[in-house]
């Protein structure tokens, strides 16, 4: 039963409400990025925030990603908690140097004396018919870098709470937002007590096989589980939520129950986050596995033009095909 503090919100609006709450709670929180102020962001995630909190708290920046992150690092060193928006996933690479050589390593270089509470928000993934450089899934590049936390919500409630937890963290957090799910609605209890930021969640219980996904692919896996149920198959869906660190314990507990694992993500399968999950779970659950761990993801090719993206992105049929292969052992 919904409480009086529960509202039905699109994921995008949940992020907006989360940022508003963070700005209101802590005067050291700042938002910065291209068009985040007067426009409210290209996806309107920051809509109305500059009007209510002023240009000194919600800052329109030049089109210079390296400058955005470099400035955020300087602000964090002076005690602020900047939330930097990268307008689209493919635009993050001019700032990659600042993120991996400065932001990720400053805490270690300072032997723990310097903290860098910076959140880098990145809308990512495909499915919206965008042009080149607007549909990338680069999460594995950041998960590979020690010193960065990497998370991605799949629903409105997690979007609301995980973003606030990321802002409150003293470590730098790369916050990947599944842009194709921005308009998906869900219930958000703004007075709830959230679970740990880096803990996975069982989104649907099952007994025959475990599907693990995060961000935009969680909905696809839930749809696959519903379709499989019509054929008498019981699939458990685990929402990873955090890509670095990974909650291997929750995945292990599920696989020990089901004996089979299929990992799904939009990013290319080759050297993707699914490879790390497959290796770790094979080590941990070798005597429980009834089939090899299988992976479903994008192809090892540049993201195609929008007209072809539905052929590139993992879909219901590709997930169910992997389920069939796993269950055939």
UniProtKB/TrEMBL annotation:
<dbReference type="Pfam" id="PF02779">
    <property type="entry name" value="Transket_pyr"/>
</dbReference>
<feature type="domain" description="Transketolase-like pyrimidine-binding">
    <location>
        <begin position="9"/>
        <end position="184"/>
    </location>
</feature>
<keyword id="KW-0560">Oxidoreductase</keyword>
<keyword id="KW-0786">Thiamine pyrophosphate</keyword>
<dbReference type="InterPro" id="IPR009014">
    <property type="entry name" value="Transketo_C/PFOR_II"/>
</dbReference>
<dbReference type="InterPro" id="IPR029061">
    <property type="entry name" value="THDP-binding"/>
</dbReference>
<protein>
    <submittedName>
        <fullName>Alpha-ketoacid dehydrogenase subunit beta</fullName>
    </submittedName>
</protein>
<dbReference type="InterPro" id="IPR005475">
    <property type="entry name" value="Transketolase-like_Pyr-bd"/>
</dbReference>
<dbReference type="InterPro" id="IPR033248">
    <property type="entry name" value="Transketolase_C"/>
</dbReference>
<dbReference type="Pfam" id="PF02780">
    <property type="entry name" value="Transketolase_C"/>
</dbReference>
């Amino acid at each position: 039963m919904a409480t009086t503090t529960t509202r039905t919100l699109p994921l995008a609006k949940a992020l907006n409400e989360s940022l508003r709450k963070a700005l209101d709670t802590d005067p050291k929180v700042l938002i910065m990025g291209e068009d985040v102020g007067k426009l409210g962001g290209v996806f309107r995630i920051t809509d109305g925030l500059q009007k209510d909190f002023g240009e000194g708290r919600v800052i329109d920046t030049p089109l210079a990603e390296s400058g955005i992150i470099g400035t955020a690092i300087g602000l964090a060193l002076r005690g602020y908690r900047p939330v930097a928006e990268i307008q689209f996933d493919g635009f993050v690479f001019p700032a990659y140097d600042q993120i991996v050589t400065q932001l990720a390593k400053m805490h270690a270089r300072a032997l723990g004396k310097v903290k860098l509470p910076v959140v880098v928000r990145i809308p990512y993934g495909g499915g919206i018919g965008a042009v080149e450089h607007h549909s990338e899934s680069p999460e594995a590049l950041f998960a590979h870098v020690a010193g960065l936390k990497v998370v991605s919500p799949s629903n409105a409630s997690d979007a609301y709470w995980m973003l606030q937890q990321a802002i409150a963290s003293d470590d730098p957090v790369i916050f990947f937002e599944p842009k194709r799910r921005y308009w998906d609605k869900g219930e958000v209890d703004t007075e709830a007590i959230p679970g740990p930021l880096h803990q996975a969640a069982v989104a649907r219980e099952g007994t025959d096989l475990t599907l693990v996904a995060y961000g935009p692919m969680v909905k696809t896996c839930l749809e696959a589980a519903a379709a499989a149920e019509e054929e008498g198959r019981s699939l458990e869906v685990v929402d990873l939520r955090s890509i670095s660190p990974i909650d291997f314990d929750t995945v292990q507990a599920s696989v020990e129950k089901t004996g089979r694992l299929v990992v799904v993500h939009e990013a290319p399968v080759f050297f993707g986050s699914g490879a790390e999950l497959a290796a770790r779970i094979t080590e941990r659950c070798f005597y429980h596995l009834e089939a090899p761990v299988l992976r479903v993801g994008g192809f090892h090719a540049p993201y195609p033009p929008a007209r072809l993206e539905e052929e590139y992105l993992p879909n219901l049929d590709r997930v169910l095909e992997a389920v069939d292969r796993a269950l055939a052992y």
